[in-house]
From TrEMBL:
Keyword Cytoplasm assigned: no
Single GO biological process annotation from the record: N-acetylmannosamine catabolic process
Classification via InterPro entries: Aldolase_TIM, NanE, RibuloseP-bd_barrel
The EC number(s) this enzyme carries: 5.1.3.9
Pathway this chain belongs to: Amino-sugar metabolism; N-acetylneuraminate degradation; D-fructose 6-phosphate from N-acetylneuraminate: step 3/5
Family label: Belongs to the NanE family.
Name of the featured protein: N-acylglucosamine-6-phosphate 2-epimerase
GO cellular component: cytosol
MF terms (GO), sorted A to Z: N-acylglucosamine-6-phosphate 2-epimerase activity
Pfam families membership: NanE
PANTHER family cross-referenced by the UniProt entry: N-ACETYLMANNOSAMINE-6-PHOSPHATE 2-EPIMERASE-RELATED
Species of provenance: Tepidanaerobacter syntrophicus
């Protein structure tokens, strides 16, 4: 599919984030491929996957657009999500038609702000679509100005501001106010907003689309059963 076909394919649809790490109880070899197959079987319009290896494996089995990202140095570096052009190139070569990048004011190893990766991909991999993971409307505005095709508040809460972290901690559903602000910040640009973060029910997903999101990304509620189970346990414990 070309860029326009991919954009149209994603419209008003569900993108499933298929990720797993060795420290999680459901992890096993090939688990992300099985997740992606289940998402395709259910009617999802796209997949979000981490690392070139997973992107390559999923691309061989599932005929859906893939948003590829590569978390390098998470917990150690300010810019860890597809932090440089080499990581972006490996994702694209593995089969990711859409490359997810960190688009924040955090500083990369080379001293530049992470937003710069958007321009670098546009120059060096013009065939790829760019998915900017941002924290807020300010980030979204800059990412749109830099030319990101898609923008999502995936990194909401990735900040050193204690007040913001408290707000995130107590937010058990998608932040619709945040979604509205990101849409407002990008409405006069060519960037499309995709809602990602704390979408726990189909009703919440529909609400995000109704508010103007081009599509929604859901991960934890679908592909991390221990997180879904914990949500039930926490609610029951509060009832007790």
């Amino acid at each position: 599919m070309d860029k326009e076909e991919i954009i149209n394919k994603l419209k008003n649809g569900l993108i499933v984030s298929c990720q797993a790490t060795p420290d999680e109880p459901h992890y096993m070899n090939g688990i992300t491929i099985m997740m992606a197959k289940c998402a395709y079987w259910a009617g999802a319009v796209g997949i979000r996957a981490n690392t070139p290896q997973d992107v390559r494996s999923i691309a061989k089995e599932v005929p859906l657009p893939i948003i590829g990202l590569w978390k390098i140095g998470r917990g150690e570096k300010e810019v860890y999500l597809t932090p440089d052009i080499n990581a972006a190139r490996e994702l694209y070569n593995a089969g990711a038609q859409i490359i997810a990048v960190q688009a924040t004011s955090h500083i990369r190893d080379d001293g530049k702000q992470s937003y710069e990766i958007i321009k670098e991909i546009k120059n060096e991999i013009p065939e790829a679509l760019i998915f900017a993971d941002v924290r807020n409307a300010e980030d979204a505005k800059i990412a749109a100005e830099y030319g990101a095709d898609f923008i999502a508040p995936t990194l909401y809460g990735y900040t050193s501001t204690p007040q913001e972290l408290v707000k995130v901690k107590h937010n058990f559903g998608p932040d619709l106010e945040l979604l509205a602000s990101v849409i407002k910040a990008t409405e006069k640009t060519n960037s499309l907003v995709i809602m990602e973060g704390k979408i726990n029910t189909p009703e919440q997903a529909v609400m995000c689309l109704y508010m103007g999101a081009h599509a929604v990304v859901v991960g934890n509620a679908i592909t991390r059963p221990h997180i879904t189970a914990k949500r039930f346990v926490d609610a029951i414990n509060k009832y007790r």
